[in-house]
Design goal:
This protein has 115 residues and is an all-alpha fold. The chain has four helices and no strands. The protein has a single domain, classed as Orthogonal Bundle (Helix Hairpins), CATH 1.10.287. Helix content is 70%, strand content 0%. The longest helix has 32 residues.
Length: 115
C-alpha cells in the first residue's frame, strides 16, 4: 500500500485542482487550482520515472543502465515547472488588470459587468 501513496497524492492534487477551477468564482482561487493541476501532473511524471534503488543518469561508471532512473520525466518536469511559473505570473498579472478595471476578482461579477 505504501508504494501507491504518490499515485494517491496525484489523484488528490488533480481532483482538488479541478474542483477549484470548475466551482470557484474567485480568480485567484482558480489560479491556485491550475497550480494544483500542474503539481499533480509533475508528481505523476516523476512517479513514472522512479525506480527503487535507482541512481542518477549522470554517472558514467554505473554498473548497468537498468539501475538508473529515467531522465526524460525529470527533464519534462523541469521544463513544466518553468512553463508553469510563467503561466502563473501571466495569469496573476491578468487578474491584477481585471481588478484595476472592474474593481473585483469575482468571475461571476466580471461576466455581468462585461457589456
Amino acid at each position: 500500500m505504501l508504494w501507491n501513496i504518490p499515485y494517491i497524492a496525484v489523484v488528490a492534487l488533480i481532483v482538488l485542482g479541478l474542483y477549484a477551477c470548475m466551482f470557484k468564482s474567485n480568480l485567484v482561487k482558480i489560479i491556485i487550482g491550475t497550480s494544483l493541476l500542474e503539481a499533480g501532473a509533475n508528481l505523476f511524471l516523476i512517479t513514472l520515472g522512479y525506480r527503487k534503488g535507482g541512481i542518477a543518469p549522470i554517472f558514467t561508471n554505473a554498473p548497468s543502465t537498468e539501475s538508473m532512473v529515467l531522465p526524460v520525466p525529470q527533464a519534462l518536469v523541469l521544463t513544466s515547472i518553468v512553463i508553469g511559473l510563467a503561466v502563473t505570473a501571466l495569469l496573476l498579472s491578468i487578474v491584477v488588470m481585471i481588478y484595476r478595471h472592474y474593481g473585483t476578482i469575482d468571475a461571476k461579477k466580471v461576466r455581468r459587468l462585461r457589456g
